[in-house]
């Protein structure tokens, strides 16, 4: 079978179009994954900052009270923002992030309240031996495991994510 010049040109054009479509699709998927990675890293940064507020309250100076209260408000706004944004990405990731936020707040709530009641410390003073330090590593690691599953190209990782974060009644 002999190919005509038109058929060869058509095959070349079709190949070029297919390669262009595949390249655009791959570029879209890479950009989407990178955008999600940025979202999750910023969301983690916001909730870890909540734990840091415990140390800021412990080391506050007398004139920082209103600044610290404003910082708590700003941080709560960020947490709400990330909960909503993650919720628009995935209901399973939303449940995972809400669980992380709840865990961090529950582990720091009484410590922060107690820190407000303590006398003001020198800002350069390190932690006291009697200070409690909440361990958030298991909670953060659980969320990061969900992030890795959500960003994974393997469908079984996303199925496991959905199973771990299913709605339990």
Automatic annotation (TrEMBL):
The chain crosses the membrane at residues 6-31. It comes from the Bacteria. This is DUF4760 domain-containing protein. Keywords: Membrane, Transmembrane, Transmembrane helix.
